[in-house]
């Protein structure tokens, strides 16, 4: 005998899996330095362009770009370790 599923179980498992991934992402983002976390949140969660982020934070656009690049690199490296 194997594991039996009732209709809708697959969807519940998928939703639970996504919740775990999102929690892990939130945790990883929270560990980033502020100058990386802020622009990443605004770009990916806030859907702002780099120019808009620079205006909101009153930072040069190059600083925003570098913060995002460094933060994404740090997140990728962290993922490799886990």
Summary tags:
about 80 residues; mainly alpha
Outline of the structure:
The protein is mostly helical and 82 residues long. It contains four helices and no strands.
Write the layout of secondary structure elements.
Blueprint: H1 9-30, H2 34-45, H3 50-57, H4 61-81
Helix pairs in contact: 2-4, 3-4
Which term fits the overall shape? Answer: extended
From the alpha-carbon coordinates, what is the Rg to the nearest angstrom?
18 Å
Would you tell me the overall average pLDDT? Answer: 83
- Please estimate the helix content: over 70%
If you had to describe this structure to a student in words, what would you say it looks like?
It is a single chain. The protein is mainly α and 82 residues long. It has 4 helices and no strands. Helix 2 (34-45) crosses helix 4 (61-81). The model has no long low-confidence stretch (mean pLDDT 83).
